[in-house]
């Protein structure tokens, strides 16, 4: 056995906490943007709601007596989102983080392969609750291609940092692909053809959340 | 001169983030005889809840539709309301707290408007309530004919029929019907109820600070919901007579009332339309229904399910039978609806 030339990044509790904090900052900074996207085809509250939720997550993390394993931190964050966001985003993102957390179990650290499994579980939770398919103009249109790219990149032997960059690019493309689509789920679907030509706010916030993960891993590894 | 832009929002506010809880505190201060506001759980509860042996009725949804739902808490209507932030569904913790607060030992009915968020949050709460040993049934309201109910939408929205369902099901619970019976009556209202809404202006959620959409002079939106979302199409503003024709045609085509049907006709203001115009619309509704062979034997005219300060109106028809009529007539005492007491 020879030691690998490059040490594969290992994700731990601090990475997850930094990710959630980075998400809080970024969602806060782009809250108005998300709300304006939502006003065009929804009900104009997406930024406000996500900001309220991730602010509460920040508080819940700060209140933790001692650092829990990463899976537990994600479950706490998910529960907090369900209790504070409302709308569809609360249950959807709350379920996503809870499922990811459960997939990680009580492991203290995990690698890229386990991360991708956790994200698979998160997407499965979102699809189960929201019954959205690719092309419905929802957060799935950003998340599904992003996680697929993460799979492909890791399978090709690329390091996690690079795989996450590929995932964010695919997520951005996926979000952009919602613009010409007619919404088939959520409030935007009430508009029928008038939903065409607008970026889906849930896809946009999904990219923000994925980018936060990518930046944190990039910085910490 | 202040530096504020000409489009700046003008509303009675302290901090936009506090609008909901400050408004609920006012509701409780004004109607302390009927209800109380549990600020920690963010719910409005009938003052004498839980009423032992009576099915509890819980409804909820985003704020901005006042008097719905808090204004319908009281005798003969809701036992509790769970208000979310403006235009945002409440969270499961609220429904759970409300369900426990009103459980009189014979189960709780959740009245859920068909919006993705409301459905998900109520579902999570109902699952938790059942785990804690409270019997819960859920009834979905989806009466808005402006939305196609198909695989390609989230399904029809719950709009005006919600108010009528809350009153009629509330009457059934008050007279002592069991949970299955109250739920069946609520479903009957939904099956025989249809609505259509129009807007003459947009509205401005306090947290957004800007109107949800721009509506140029001389234009109106057809097929709006109750969240300031634009409708399915935009058209030139027409006479009240023509607008009611369009609205009733949409409703009647879908409802397909029996020949000589008796209906409850509800002309609802969206928040920014004065009563003088709502009665003018009701006059059109009354005449046009009779001309179509439908008899409006009961009515409700006023702003009961609103979209902040939006100018606009919706028409809801519920085809009545003797039982629904007597439950509509049954005593009710809430901040927004009161008769027979």
Map the helices and strands.
The complex is a heterodimer of chains A (221) and B (341).
Chain A: E1 11-12, H1 13-29, H2 31-41, H3 46-62, H4 70-84, H5 89-104, E2 109-110, H6 112-130, H7 140-155, H8 160-176, H9 201-220
Antiparallel strand pairs in A: 1-2
Chain B: H1 19-30, E1 35-38, E2 43-46, E3 56-63, E4 80-86, H2 92-102, E5 108-113, H3 116-131, E6 136-141, H4 161-174, H5 179-191, E7 193-199, E8 219-222, E9 233-236, H6 240-255, E10 262-269, H7 275-291, E11 295-302, E12 312-319, H8 322-329, E13 332-333, E14 338-339
Parallel strand pairs in B: 3-4, 3-5, 5-6, 10-11
Antiparallel strand pairs in B: 1-2, 2-4, 7-8, 7-12, 8-9, 10-12, 13-14
Helix pairs in contact in B: 2-3, 4-5, 4-8, 6-7
Description:
The complex is a heterodimer of chains A (221) and B (341). Helix content of chain A is 67%, strand content 2%. With 221 residues, chain A is mostly helical. Chain A has a single domain, classed as DhaL domain (Serine Threonine Protein Phosphatase 5, Tetratricopeptide repeat, Alpha Horseshoe), CATH 1.25.40. The longest helix of chain A is centred in the last third of the chain and has 20 residues, at 201-220. The two termini of chain A are 24 Å apart. The model of chain A is unreliable at 1-5 (pLDDT under 50). The interface between A and B is large, with 34 and 38 residues.
List how many beta strands of chain A DSSP finds: 2
Side-by-side strand order of the widest sheet of chain A = 1-2
Q: How can the largest sheet of chain B be summarized?
A: 6 strands, mixed
N→C terminal distance of chain A = 24 Å
Q: How many extended strands of chain B? A: 14
The percentage helix of chain A is 55-70%
List low-confidence stretches of chain A. 1-5
Radius of gyration computed on alpha carbons of chain A: 17 Å
**Low-confidence region ranges of chain B:** 1-6
Strand content of chain A: under 5%
